[in-house]
Amino acid sequence: MDLGTKWKEIKVAWEPRIKEWKFMIKRMRESPLAILGLAIIIGFVIIACMAPILAPPTGPDPFILKVDTEFSVLTPQPTPPTVKHIFGTTGEQYDIYYACIWGTINAFRVGLLVVVIALIIGLILGVVAAYYGGIIDEILMRFTDIIIALPGLVLSMALVIAFPTIIPLDVTTIILVISAILSITFAAFKPERKFLLPTQIVLFASLLLYIYNPIVIGLNLSRLDKVLISLAIVGWPGYARLIRGEVLRVKNEDYIEAAKAAGSSDFRIIMKHILPNTIYPLLIVVTLDIGSIVLTAAALGFLGIGAEPNFADWGNIISRSRDWISSPDLLVKHYHTFLIPGIFITLFVLGWNLLGDALRDVLDPMIRRR
Amino acid sequence: MTSLPAYIARRLILLIFVLFGVTVLIFAITALVPVDVRAMLYVRNVQHTNPQQLMRIAEQYGLTRPLYEQYFTWIGQVLQGNLGFSKSAQQPVIQAILERWPYTFEIVLFAAPLIIFIGIYLGVQAAIHKDGIIDHATRVLSIIGWSLPSFWLGLILLSVFYGYLRWLPPGPLDPDLMNFRNTSPSFKRYTYIDLFDGLLNGRPDITLSVIKHLILPVIVIVTINVALLIRVMRSSMLEALGKPYTFAAKAKGLDDKTVIYRHARRNALIPVITLSGMLVAGMLGGLVITETVFAFGGLGQWAARAALNFDIPAVLGYAMLSAFIFVIANLIVDILYAYIDPRIRLV
């Protein structure tokens, strides 16, 4: 096949998608709120990218805040904004400006990582529940019921304090279980047999290892890792339910029947036909979730159980303000320690929420094209 | 169609399963904690214990036995009302809960109806005036309310109304009145809810003081939680306004008011009822932060302080309590729902 026909093929395949994107962008541009949301997020992306220039790192790990020794000796109290510290310092003499700038990267990291982890778990379990149905579906959905019964913040609080600092990770067992699942899956999906042999070799090798020499490594969890894991555990049931519902919706459509009749494997049907059709509702929820995840992480930081106290995190900076609650004078005097990081949190979350809200109008097939 | 009692029976059986699952989940979280840390919970003086002693204690309390055995021992204790000892409160968890729930109840008592009324009112107004000023304003305001960190909103309100204006102090009650309530022999605590006890004892100043202290926390809780209700009410109302029965009502010659309030709104309220179960969960989470900011002394503040001090039994006790409240609230909502709308029982 020469390049010309190949190019034509690609063009034909992509034309409807490009048209769809063009339509989306056109709708987005008509909504001032969407533009505002996008502008806020782009602003934060710029801050995150420029962080090393805006606030030059003070140590090998830029996220670790450094104490300004010049002040800490003289004043144990927060210092109000000055030329040197334009947003002032906290009670421990951490520069708030520095913490806010590097906290932006941290917020992106927390929001995106948690969403990706929760989405992967939710995607796998949601598709499995919907596509296979029956008892698997029932068990998985009742399990999500249980997690959803606990308020997200309370469950993540409990998980954060319960996680041990060093988790003994049994590598052999994990490889064994994963390769066993993969071998069964590949054995079930007929055309994917070519992967069967390698997975079975891995399965056999890990079985031997499991019997003769299990490898256990101690996984060291920082406090931030605990927050990330807890938020992902809290977040996945929502995705699993959403994806399950979407898969059930498209499962009985004619084009799935057609794909089955054409001899496609389950794996191919899920990847090529079902998932692309569930992507739009997911995109809306994910966008809205990034905001709420960052909010919950900040709330954990405020309660004093988030990342390490010297870590550049917006919630952490506000956390010290709990000490001023009982004193009206200190509340007014040290307003900068909570006002400025709070503006960062609010704007960040607002940006994602505005974008998600606009996406819902643009992408929801029920209400668009009117 | 299933009858209502059969439906309730089925829901009750499901409830038992979910509650069982919740206890398993809570126990699984306990099991995450390393054995020596769990053994420390039984020790009064942690500094003077060496690892060998801790292991002995762990064995003595059965922490080294298989997990399912530990679960049954634990669930037996829970069913007898023993949720463990809260180190941060220096009292058993169950007693800490009994002592603190009235404060939390006071906030919920004011916040919940406000959320529901404001949410329904603004949602209906936004739907009637779709794409009008009210619609856009509620939309923007609810997105902002949704994005505000509750601790930040609380701190700002507190610094303005307490720090700057000195009007609305934190805490559940003025300190001198609190002192009077605790020490005066003539003050009888009938309900343990200061709001009512003040009136029952002929001391309206106590009730007024409680209300004064409630204003800011209630504002925060309402602002954070009302957004969701407004949005759901709006879309549900828009859907109802597009339904054939609304056109039929209009075609009959009914005036707009009757059509909107008696025909459309009634039907639009149904999904909102379901949402109120979720609202409970949102409030119980939000109370942890709000009570901490306003030093309100209720269950939420206790849970927050417990988390900070690694008081695991207390946090898990609060988690279990909120899950129970959530599950039972959902059960009540579902039964109400089936009662109001017989179509639901078909499923």
Report on the structure:
The complex is a heterodimer of chains A (370) and B (347). In chain A, helix 2 (32-54) crosses helix 4 and helix 5 crosses helix 9 (223-251). Chain A is globular. Chain A has 14 helices and two strands, in the order ααααααβααβαααααα. Chain A is mostly helical and 370 residues long. The mean pLDDT of chain B is 87. In chain B, strands 1-2 form a two-stranded antiparallel sheet. In chain B, strand 1 and strand 2 (91-92) form a beta hairpin. Chain B has 347 residues and is an all-alpha fold. Classes of the chains: A mainly alpha (370), B mainly alpha (347). The interface between A and B is large, with 51 and 59 residues.
Specify the oligomeric state.
Answer: heterodimer
Strand content of chain B: under 5%
Order of helices and strands of chain A: HHHHHHEHHEHHHHHH
Q: Quick one: how many beta strands of chain A?
A: 2
Number of helices of chain B: 14
Summing up helix and strand content along with how strands pair, one would put the structural category of chain B as mainly alpha
How many strands of chain B?
Answer: 2
Largest sheet of chain B: 2 strands, antiparallel
Number of helices of chain A: 14
Helix content range of chain B: over 70%
Give the CA-based shape of chain B.
globular
Low-confidence stretches of chain B: none
Q: Tell me the major beta sheet of chain A.
A: 2 strands, antiparallel
Would you identify the regions of chain A where 5 or more consecutive residues have pLDDT less than 50? Answer: none
